[in-house]
Fold this protein.
Amino acid sequence: MVEIPDYFRPLGSTGMYCHPLGFGCYRIADGNPEHEAALRSYLDQGGNLIDTSTNYVDGLSEILVGKVVRDYPREQVIVVTKAGYIQGQIMELARSRAFPEVVQYDEGIWHCIHPEFLETQIELSRERLQRDVLDVLLLHNPEYFLIHQSHHKAVDASDQVEFYQKIRETFRFLEEKVRQGQIRWYGISSNNYGLPLADPTMTSVSRCLFEAEALSSDHHFKVVQLPLNLAENGGALEPNNDGSTVLEFCQQHGLAVMANRPLNISCNGRFIRLADFAPPGRKPPGKKSLLELLEPLRQHEKIGTEMGISSSDGRSAGLPQMLEQIVSQAKSVEHWNLLMGRYVIPPLKRWITDSSQRNSDNVLWQQWLDKFFHLISTTFEATERFIQSRQQPGSDRVRNHLSEGGYPQTPHSLSQIALGILLNLQGLSCVLNGMRRPSYVADAFGSRYTPRVDALKTLGHFKSFT
């Protein structure tokens, strides 16, 4: 029998206990040694809850989790996965199978919680995770149905009725999967749990519980997941479930609550990552620093030009100039990744393919290309750090605002402070944090030792942050 550490928390009334910090697997992929090292570091240091999804990195997230957890005792690790999104390979499956009740939300993003579709997702997850029984399966943002409806008309009571009827029928299917021994517990991950009751797209925990109880008093709907952070704090402060907040209601009814997006906030249209990217108070780096980090790549492209190799984007301006322009537009690392994925990576791949064909007889081409790949990797990482360091003034403003609200002075990082505040919330089972690097794991674990504070008061104070 596995001994349960005294700081572990009950995962609702499932009978399972979890580390207060969970390993979030968004952007975690098989084939990345650093991601695998981070996940193993988390488990080796006592972590035991991993949260993934069928659509994370097109299935590579689940594959990595399966590869790692097979090296640990089965009862030592709780794996939570989610299903509902139709993207990537799943999109190809959906186009060929024509599943019922698919919400075609946008090009490249469909959604479905119909049992016929979920049947395929459960089988995929069991195979990728190398587990006959899934510990917890969550419906992944089923509110897409209501949001899609809201784009075409005003959402009314009939839409709400239809939405919760779909939830009930899906719960009926999941209860059968429990009976068959394919899953142990199920629940819902919704971005809209914390919205005001007046919002027609709000997902109600109380109504979801009602649908489960209508099927059986011995139902297995026991887990909910929602965004929860300093700014997105409705789950802790909004009384939208029979006069109770999500945390209060779930605590009263034995439901586990897992918080995601703990370090990402949006304020006045700007994204702020709750982390330190430079020593607090340090002046952000300027254009000179950016040009210096781009210079090695610029010099290598110059060598390529002398060899008769055209610039990396097929124009007179090369990749460094493109990166310089993208950096000037990027508001955050997330925005940077979006711009890179849209305007830089696709043409760069095409250029490499075309140039490889054109230079197939050039004996120096492969040597040049190998070094080019290395420089791309190091330059992209350095540029990302440059963008992050420009965000430090925003981090400083968050820290100062918390101090003005009474948060005690502490040497902890801002990410540790933000996680620690959530860990002080009553009724919260687990805070899911993205930990793609071993250093992120070490930083996150340090949040357990931040000052004990009145978390509700702190979140309430943060509402005045601008």
